[in-house]
Amino acid sequence: MPLLQSILLCSLFVFAPSTAFSGEKVELVILHVNDTHGKMQPYEAGEWGEVGGIARLSTLIKQTRRENPDRVLFLHAGDILSRGDPVTVYYGGRINFRAYEKMGVDAITPGNGEFYMGIENLQNQAARVSIPFVHANALYRNHGNSIFPPYVIKEVNGIKIGILGLGLVRTWHNSSQKLTLDDPIEVAKQYVPELRPKVDLLIALTHIQAKNDSLLAAAVPELDLIVGGDSHTRLNSPSRIPRANGQGSVPIVQARHYFQFMGRVDIELERDGDKVRINKVDGRLIPINAETTPDPEIENFIAQYAAPLNEVIARSEIELKNDRDAPSPLGDLVVNAVLSQTRADIAIIHGNQGEFDIKPGDITLADINRIRWYHSRIVTARLTGAQIQQLLAARFYNVAGCRFTKIESQVTDLRINGQPVDSAATYLVATEQQVAFRNSVFESVHVDFTGQRVDTALESHLRHVAVIR
Ligand SMILES: [Zn+2]
């Protein structure tokens, strides 16, 4: 290479970035929510009046983007689906994820609540939207790959931002039996050396609880920000964990739950040669309440899917109260629906999740999704009288097709089809996958999937019965 050219190249290399950019300040705005749990409609919250609503969040996001063109990032730190409203439950989260897609979410770390309708459901729903789902520490048991990409790199306003997903999965739940969960802090230590050199700003988007975010910050000081979830913590301003090397602290943010707040983090960066320095990280919570007009785009989108759920499928002349942990009229209705739809000898299921009672009057499709939250699949198995006795002793279940006396987990006088139980004979038992998955009595028997779920059995049963008297 001629000398002059090489000097020129050399000087360009040395001086160009610094003369062009040094000292240039760049501002970023990071908006975040967590633990929204499908509570998409506004609701009353005591002294606060009406709060929440995903359509109001959308308004606030659009407003922030208008005021800060091309420098806003919107993140969700998980628990979008579980304990959701009927639209969330009925569509398996599809409407929620599509709403977030419309709102331009930049990344989601799935929370444990995203798994309860099954990892297959989560993967199917995620595949239908163009949203980066990130999760570095939940792996498939059989091949060891992470269920989603561990991180995503976004470029906003010329700044490269790495977003590493770290979360929680209840691997004891049947929906997650194909998964293993690695320690999020150990996994972060594995990925950070590869990710840190590629980005200007490194964010952990976590669903591991605030106390673990603090441990993560202490263990991985290379992080610039932790956007957390799962503990439903209200951090009015970032909590800051000092770095051991004395170079400032790692800020942690979390925005409570149920769309009560939108978190906002303002970051000031400064270019220093080809490096980027973080000058300042400020954070606060912005209330989501009646002062904000709902975004009609999101409101109408959800309303369109909510409307079919108002279909009346039966009527009740009596009140059916629910109790999750003891026999109740609503518990009996659901387990009898499972029995009648499967034609088994007996049915054994968990208490209903929803805090919802059927009142005298119309029963809608939406109501079914207020009673049962998790698309729980019905299975059947042939168990001996002795195995059934053992199962019933283990804990409280709603049961149909049998009667018994239970005193301090001793089951006596068990009668099936009106006859005293024969402990050696086998009976066809209908139950839900979660019961079969967690009880050892099912380990040695063949379990069949019926193709029905508890909620669909309840719907068929109610349509057939038409009136409850
Ligand atoms: Zn949660």
Secondary structural class: alpha/beta
Which regions are unreliable across 5 or more consecutive residues at pLDDT < 50?
1-20
Beta-strand residue percentage: 25-35%
User: What is the level-2 CATH architecture name of the largest domain?
Assistant: 4-Layer Sandwich
Number of helices: 13
In the CATH hierarchy, the third-tier topology of the largest domain is known as: Purple Acid Phosphatase, chain A, domain 2
Instruction: Return the domain count.
Output: 2
Helix content: 25-40%
CATH superfamily of the largest domain: Metallo-dependent phosphatases
**Total count of strands:** 26
**End-to-end distance, in Å?**
95 Å
Query: What is the chains' assembly state?
Result: single chain
CATH class of the largest domain: Alpha Beta
Main sheet properties:
6 strands, mixed
Rg over C-alpha atoms, rounded to the nearest angstrom: 27 Å
Q: Strand sequence of the main sheet, in spatial order? A: 7-8-10-11-13-12
Overall, the morphology is elongated
Average pLDDT over all residues: 93
Bound chemical compounds = zinc ion
